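Example 3.2
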Amino acid sequence: MGIIVNKENSQDELSRRISADLKDRAEETERMDDPDLAEDAEYLRDLKKPGRFGWMWFVLIALATLSVISIIFF
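Structure, written as C-alpha cells:
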C-alpha cells in the first residue's frame, strides 16, 4: 500500500495551516493586556516591590562575607 502525495498541494496546505495558526495566536495575544500574566500569580499578590535602598542588602552581605573570610584567613 502507498500514499500518493502531490508535493505542491501538500506544501500549500501546510503553509496555509501554519499561517492561519500564527494569525490566530497573534490576534489572541493582542486581545490580552498582559500576555505572560506574571504579575497575577498567586504567590506574588502579597509581595512588595523593593524600596530605594534594596541594593544595600547585597552590599551588606558582600561586606559580611569579606569580613568572615578575612577573619578566617588572616
